[in-house]
């Protein structure tokens, strides 16, 4: 690994460039491919692919607020190539630049076909999923199951590489289990095939999400390849990101679960890593972003599906905002009425603001009692 390749088109220390909200038709590929241009001095922070979570609107918001890049939810390559509606929605990238589509599958031909189609539909980067631990995925020999047979994994990577002209990347775990920590080998094979970057989640498949991600173990990958390495797992803020980069020797971090209900977190970490001041949005701005996300999902999926799809986001926004009592929260995640969900979401952000304003307005005698009075 070298430290002079970065997943950012921004110059070191520069203000993030204004992001286009839609890809200009005919934009030359080499401009879009600047995502992977070698730059020095900047460590990036990417939004991780989270199936059922990192929908189009979450990615748009995260990217607009400074995430180095975002990755779509995994898209089953065969479903996408066959044109299913769910796969199409997962691969949506309108207004997200660069638009990284992650494909999952085990058959090189379907993966190649899915990649070709994704590129034709505007993907700027194709990412291959070799990390998903879910039984439904590994049972079909996809996701992290591919790490059990690196020769097959390599054939699949080669097929995807050959199918497209945009950059290709791969996301993996440390290995299938403790006895086969073969991520460095897989990363070397990807590099030889012309892959532009690899992401490593610092757990084995058999660990699923238990324990702590082993950032130091990612170092073996960083030392095995010269292409950019992105380290992933349990990064929840700037201190974690710095420690993760130090221990892993990676070029960038990828943040998943910690960004749910806080899509601005990834940009804040990216800014912090670049040495810029971290300007996280205030409560009012967060409320607006959450509402934008929610309304976007209703528009994308329709009212019935949208309100269901939005539930995990609504719960996470409300939990971080802290403004709902348990019965309101329960209502927020069960209501099928989009207007009621929107009202409760607003309330989640308003209530703490109103409460703190009330406290501030109280006469001093009624304000929080000093500890000495109770003693
Ligand atoms: C709900 C959920 C869905 C996920 N979906 C995907 C996926 O579609 N593709 C993928 O490569 N990884 C997926 N992952 C793994 C994450 O991208 C990431 O590797 C993992 O959550 C560790 O990072 P974190 O600790 O920052 O969340 C998923 C994880 C979770 C919790």
From TrEMBL:
Catalytic residues as annotated in Swiss-Prot or TrEMBL: 132
InterPro entries: Aldolase_TIM, DUS-like_FMN-bd, DUS_fam, DusB-like, tRNA-dHydroUridine_Synthase_C, tRNA_hU_synthase_CS
Low complexity bias: start-end ranges: 9-22
Keyword NADP: yes
SUPFAM superfamilies named among the record's database cross-references: FMN-linked oxidoreductases
EC numbers, comma separated: 1.3.1.-
Cofactor: FMN
PROSITE patterns: UPF0034
UniProt catalytic activity: a 5,6-dihydrouridine in tRNA + NAD(+) = a uridine in tRNA + NADH + H(+); a 5,6-dihydrouridine in tRNA + NADP(+) = a uridine in tRNA + NADPH + H(+)
Summary of the function given for this chain in its UniProt record: Catalyzes the synthesis of 5,6-dihydrouridine (D), a modified base found in the D-loop of most tRNAs, via the reduction of the C5-C6 double bond in target uridines.
Assigned protein family: Belongs to the dus family.
Protein name stated in the entry: tRNA-dihydrouridine synthase
Gene assigned in the entry: dusB
């Amino acid at each position: 690994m070298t430290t002079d390749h970065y997943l950012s088109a921004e110059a070191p220390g520069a203000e993030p460039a204004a992001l286009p909200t839609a890809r200009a038709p005919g934009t030359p590929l080499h401009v879009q491919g600047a995502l992977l241009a070698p730059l020095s001095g900047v460590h990036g922070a990417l939004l991780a692919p989270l199936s059922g979570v990192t929908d189009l609107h979450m990615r748009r918001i995260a990217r607009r607020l400074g995430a180095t890049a975002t990755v779509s939810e995994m898209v089953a390559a065969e479903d996408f190539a066959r044109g299913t509606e769910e796969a199409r929605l997962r691969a949506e990238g309108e207004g997200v630049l660069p638009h990284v589509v992650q494909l999952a599958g085990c058959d090189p031909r379907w993966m190649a076909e899915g990649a070709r189609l994704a590129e034709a539909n505007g993907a700027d980067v194709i990412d291959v999923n070799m990390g998903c631990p879910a039984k439904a995925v590994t049972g079909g020999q996809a996701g992290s199951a591919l790490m059990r047979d690196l020769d097959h994994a390599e054939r699949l990577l080669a097929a995807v590489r050959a199918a497209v002209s945009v950059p290709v990347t791969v996301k993996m775990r440390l290995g299938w289990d403790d006895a086969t920590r073969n991520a460095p080998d897989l990363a070397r094979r990807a590099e030889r095939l012309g892959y532009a970057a690899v992401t490593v989640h610092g757990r084995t498949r058999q660990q699923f999400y238990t324990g702590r991600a082993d950032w130091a173990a990612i170092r073996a990958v960083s030392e095995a390849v010269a292409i950019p390495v992105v380290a992933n797992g349990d990064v929840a803020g700037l201190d974690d990101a710095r420690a993760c980069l130090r221990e892993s020797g990676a070029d960038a971090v990828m943040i998943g679960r910690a960004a749910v209900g806080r899509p601005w977190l990834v940009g804040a970490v990216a800014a912090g890593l670049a040495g810029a001041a971290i300007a996280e949005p205030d409560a009012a701005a967060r409320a607006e972003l959450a509402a934008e996300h929610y309304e976007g999902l209703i528009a994308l999926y329709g009212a019935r599906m949208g309100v269901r799809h939005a539930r995990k986001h609504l719960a996470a926004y409300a939990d971080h905002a802290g403004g709902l009592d348990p019965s309101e929260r329960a209502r927020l995640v069960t209501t099928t009425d989009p207007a009621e969900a929107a009202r409760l979401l607003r309330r989640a952000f308003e209530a703490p603001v109103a409460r703190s304003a009330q406290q501030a307005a109280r006469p001093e005698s009624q304000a929080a009692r000093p500890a000495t009075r109770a003693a």
